[in-house]
Here is the input.
Amino acid sequence: MPAISPVPDSNQEARAAGFVFRLYVAGEAPNSQLALRNLKVLCNDHYRDDYHIDVVDVLLSPERAWTEGVIVTPTVVRLNPEPGIRIIGNLSNTDQVLSVLGFAIQAND
Amino acid sequence: MPNARMQHNKLNKVLTGIRGLDDITNGGFPRGRATLLAGGPGSGKTVLALQALVNGAKNGEPGIFVAFEEDSARIVANAATFGWNLPELEKQSLFFLDAKPRPDVVCAGQFDLAGLLASLKAKADQMGAKRIVFDSIDVLLSLLNDSLAERRELYRLSDWLVSCGLTGIITCKNNDSGQTNLDYQDFLQYMVDCAIFLRHDLENRVARRTLRIVKYRGSGFYAGEVALSLGDHGIEVVSFPLMPAYDRDITERVSSGVERLDSMLGGGYYRGAAVLLSGAPGTAKTTLCGSFVLAACARGERALFVGFDEPAHEIVRNLRSVGIDLGPHVASGLLHIQSIRSSLTGAEEHIGTLRNLLETHQPRCFVIDPLSAIINSDANASRRRMPEQLLAMTKATGVTLVCSSLLNGNDALDESTDIQVSTVADTWIHLSYDVLAGERNRALTIIKSRGTEHSNQVRELILSGSGITLTDVYQADGEVLMGTARWQKEISEKDAEEHLLAGVEHKRKELELAQAEVNARIEVLQRGMAVKRAELEMLLAAEVSRLKKTSRTHQALWGKRSGDSQKPASDC
Here is the structure.
């Protein structure tokens, strides 16, 4: 099972994984929870065990979200590999997400 | 908050501290509600929002600025020119949140402001914030790209403001016509309690910013378009319904700086009056302005001289050439000379500039030379209200204003009426020139002077190295003569007078001679009379003595006859 950390900054695991995401959520807000589910499904489908999701609740650490440039929730940031990718929204638009992450869309046809 | 409506309007508002805006909104923005500032690029919505926030922060209402569009560092840097001292305020009562979306951000599905608003609430509670600005909301909403989601988030924002008790200022772009072009913008207008449109136009190549309150729930407001001025201290609303003018009976006189003009006016201008000097180029308007200022400084009064398109040192130099040396008063700080470029801004913006100058320098005497520079800078009809606003400003503070008005021609009544100053001014002096016998001579006429007995005669105005002198009216054959024509006429009249005087002398001598002759004849007659009188006396005396002698002879004869006792009759 890949690691899903509710605690920010689990750097050790983050470095270990090939794909590292940080998801900023607003507590239990529907869009935020949906984004977490969608991200997990996506990672399981495409990265198998080689990923890590770091969840940051902006309600608990608002200033941190601001300093990291996160305004709306949910926001997901790919920290690794470079270059960083930033996606906002609940990730329901799967084609869009996959496209941004560099997967060929024709897989869906 | 059902009780909100029950409260008195005034309790529900927060002062923006922006001059004029609090007047036209009847007390500021709605407290705990959202106000929308919509306008095109450069219309001043960001400055207006920030200024309202800063004014609150300075007066016990800390504020948060959420910058969706610009980096906060840039906003702070831009605002540095206004002297609001943001870095100091940022330590305590002002917080900037950089919320500009990254250019590389991708939207994949719905998102919301729940997280942002929740964290803003935490920040607001922590710093005790009372006001919040979202600048500009359309940047955020354009990411949503879904009209339902846009409405949902705007509702969320509106509810959040009410629940937090924060006074919200939301800025939003719209197009030039003032009409919103996107769905959410119409909805925004509907949602907020107060909606204000700002515009930035070019009219006759002059930039012009205006503002209009479109709606204000539960409050009266001034619905007309008003002008905005972006001055040294921020934005202000410069043209709004006039406040009642300063009402005080003033009888004090202020010297015009020209002795003869003072006496023509019955002692000078009234303190606090507005004086218009109209005239064609080169009729000594500026010199008359300079005389007034010099006289004010000589009395120790602060004075302000506003010129246009001519550097201050040139104004001083030119006036020095006619014996008006303002240099020492500028050096002492008593006089401030400000040169303004006439063509860059609209009339209202100039009014804002003048008001700020009046406030910073606090003069008692104020010169605008020429006022027509401002008026001509703005061809819009609103310029017609401009002189009134200017006068309302000076009258309110009791400043004596002398302004000149440049006319293209020589006839005052033709052109000056056009700019309306003439009707508003208390005293109107017209300067003209007469071309006669190859000379151009200056003339001064007082066209009107309220509440003053004034001379109705034209005076010749002579400009020399020692300033202005007004010479006596020289009238001949129903015409006022000036220059060498006057001199020639004076000479010829003097000759005529000498001639007349000589004639009188001659006649006097003639008469004296005649008188002497009569006197002499009287003397002769009197002497003749004396001779006759003496003659008569001699005659009478001789007769008396003859009679006495006859009587004695008769008596002696009677005595010698003696026989007759009868007394002799005396009828002999």
About this structure: Confidence is low (pLDDT under 50) at residues 1-11, 242-246 of chain B.
